[in-house]
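User: I'm curious whether this sequence folds into something compact or stays loose and floppy. Could you predict its structure so I can see for myself?
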Amino acid sequence: MLFLYLYCVKNSPIGIFDSGIGGLTIAYALKEKLPNENIIYFGDTEHLPYGEKSEIAIQNFSKRITQFLLEKKCKTIVIACNSASSVALQSVKEIAKTIPVFNVITPVVNKVVQHCSEFNIGVIGTKATIQSNIYEREIKAICPIAKVSSLATPLLAPMIEEGFINESISHTVIANYLSNKKLATIDHLILACTHYPLIHQKIKDYYKGKVIVIDSANIVAKHIADSLKNKNLLNNAIETKHHFYVSNYTKSFEESAKFFFREDLKLEEMNLWA
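Assistant: Here's the prediction. I'll summarize afterward.
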C-alpha cells in the first residue's frame, strides 16, 4: 500500500506558477534537467505584472493558484516569480501544508554567497522584488560583509513579455538601466526576475566580461532536481505530459509562451477568479 502511494506521488506533476509566462524559463530549465517529469504551469496573465501589485494582492493571487495546482494533484509547488517569492512564500506554504514549496530566491542567494567577501553584488528586478529588499536581507543573513546594490527595472518584464527583445528599443532600455550609478561598482549581477534569462546574453554583452551575470533558471532547476531526488520524488516515467494554463488567454501570449518554453505548446484559459 505504501509502495503504491509513493508510486502515485512520484508520478504526480510538478506545479509551477508565475504572474505571466516568464516562469516558463524555469519550466524549460526543469524540463531539461528532469525530462521524465510532468509539468503543470499556471501563468496569471489576468493580473500581470505582479511587480506593480500590493503585497496583499500578490499573496491572494498566489494562494488561489496554489489551491488550483493542489487540486491538480501536484507533488510540489514552484513559485517561479521573484515578486511572489518575495512576499507570498509563507502564504503558499500555509496552503500547501506538507507539499514541498520552492522559490526562485533562496537557491540563487545560496549560490552567489559562496565567496561573498569578494563580491559587490548587484540585483535587478521588479519594483515588488526590489522594494521587499529580500535579496539583500538573505545575502547579508549569510554573509554580513557582502555589498549589495539593488535597482528596480520595471520596463524589462513587459518588454520581454511583448517580444521586444532584439529590437533597438531593448538595447536602449537595457543600457539605460545598467548604466545607473547604483550598479557602477558591481562585479556580479543577479537577474531577479524569471523573464530576464531571455536577455541574459544582451546583459552579458553590455558588460563585456567585466561583470558575472547570474542566471537564476538553471540554478533553481538544479536545486529542485536535487531536492526531489533526496526526497525520493523523482518520476521515472518515459512518457511525459505537460499542461499550460493562463488566467487570460490571448494569441500573442501563446506565441510568446512558445518562445519562452522553446517548443510548441497550447495555452488553456482558466480564470480562477471568474
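Summary: The first strand starts at residue 14 and ends at 18. The chain has two domains: 2-103+219-269, 106-216.
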